[in-house]
Amino acid sequence: MGLTGLSVKEYVARVAAGTAAPGGGSVCALVCALSGALCLMTARLTLGRKKSSDAWSAMETLSRSMEPLVLRSMELAEQDAEAYERVLAAYKIAGGEERARSIQAAMKQAAIVPMETLRVLAEITDLIEEVIEKGNPNCLCDTAMAVRMIRAAAGGAVDNVRANLAKIDDKNFVTHMQSEMTSLENNIEQATGRFGAFIELLVSSS
Fold it and tell me: What is the CATH number of domain 20-205?
């Protein structure tokens, strides 16, 4: 589909075009990438700041960990749209066992992609605490925005996983995915809630 090569204006226009893809799952992955990008921005604006010299090593390490997560998120924005296109194509196959198999395979992939987005969001969540605690305090509002975006993208990813699992007949697959989804969702929700409260405290005392 070539979404990663589009400008912001082109991507927004593609979402708004009235076609089924890219849709919510792709947007969730893009929001995931942007949350990671804000963390990277804060880390890099901490490097070279003399007042934050004690955090330079941590921010360098964090940047190396965050960069591939941002890139992976952008890939997922495209993969999600492609997965949904395969679902649509499967439903167009003439009736019979081949159609049923194709639909089930496509639905599984359509569930796997947003689950991967959720996994990446969990990894970003694990890293952002250090950005909040040690990052450039002038970027606090940017970091706060990253936290809000993580929560929004995680909620959207869960919605997409759940909607696709509802159409899958493989009960073992569904059970495994639901278990992991719930665990990741709870961990992200708890962590971002804690981060948000901490950021509010920092903002009010600044």
Answer: 1.20.120.680
Q: How far apart are CA 93 and CA 103, in angstroms?
A: 9
Contacts of 144 (CB under 8 A, 6+ apart): 196, 199, 203
**2 phi-psi bin (left φ>0, alpha ψ -120 to 50, beta other):** left
Tokens of 166: 């509802």
Per-residue pLDDT tens digits for 113-139: 999 999 999 999 999 999 999 999 999
pLDDT of residue 1: 60
Which pTM does this prediction carry?
A: 0.94
Domain positions in the chain are 20-205
Of these ranges, 19-23, 120-124, 141-145, the one predicted with the greatest mean pLDDT is 120-124
Contact 174, 168 (CB under 8 A): yes
Question: CA nearest 39: which of 98, 127, 118?
Answer: 127
Which tokens is 89 given?
A: 């194509």
144's tokens: 């706060």
| Per-residue pLDDT tens over the stretch 43-65 | 999 998 999 999 999 999 999 99
Spatial neighbors of 118 by CB under 8 A, at least 6 apart, are 154, 157, 158, 161, 181, 184, 185, 188
